[in-house]
Amino acid sequence: MDQSAHEARPADTVVPAPSETPRYLLPVTDADITVAERHYGSKSIVREVIEAVVLSLMIFLLVQSVVQNRQVLGHSMDPTLADQERLFIDRASYFHLGSTYPLGGPLRGDIVVFRPPVQGESEDYIKRVIAVPGEAVQVKAYDGVYVNGHKLDEPYIKDTPDYNWP
Question: What is the dihedral of CA 95, 110, 108, 81, to 10 degrees?
Fold first, then answer.
């Protein structure tokens, strides 16, 4: 057996495969390196910033016209909605043209947000729909709410009210 085949080689020695020729990385000078400049547009940085701000504003206004956030004030919707709870309101579902709702109007049981019918109040009301247009609503003292002559089942109310008022 050939003794040279068993000799130890230093660890940093690179032995090329028999069929490969060794490749070497040669040093280069600065003159050998070129950097190609690419121009992808002729917009100035000011125009880029203005376009980004305008686009962001348009997206913000679009989102605000479809979705809004509100905060529940008071305990009138307990236990469904707690005082100080924050909500996202879907405005697109109840978009209307006059009395026509292209996407479907409010249904019994829906929670809606509307402007207060009382002069001088500024906070929007958050309430549940108990009847829709064309239905007759009757409130009977110490008994409950009736829609079209049928007593309304109100499992969402925390305490059953007595509906007693002057």
Answer: -150
Catalytically active residues, by annotation: 76, 127
Six token digits for residue 113? 């947000």
**Alpha-carbon torsion angle 162, 163, 164, 166, nearest 10:** 170
Residue 137 DSSP SS3: strand
Rounded CA-CA distance 132/150 in Å is: 14
The closest of 97, 99, 131 to 112, measured between CA atoms, is 131
Name the pTM for this structure: 0.58
**Angle CA 77–108–115, to nearest 5:** 55
Nearest CA to 125 out of 89, 160, 153 is that of 89
What does R_g of the chain's alpha carbons equal in angstroms?
37
DSSP 6: G
Predicted pLDDT at 148: 93
Strand partners, 127: 112
Could you give the CA distance from residue 38 to residue 132 in angstroms, rounded to a whole number?
Answer: 64
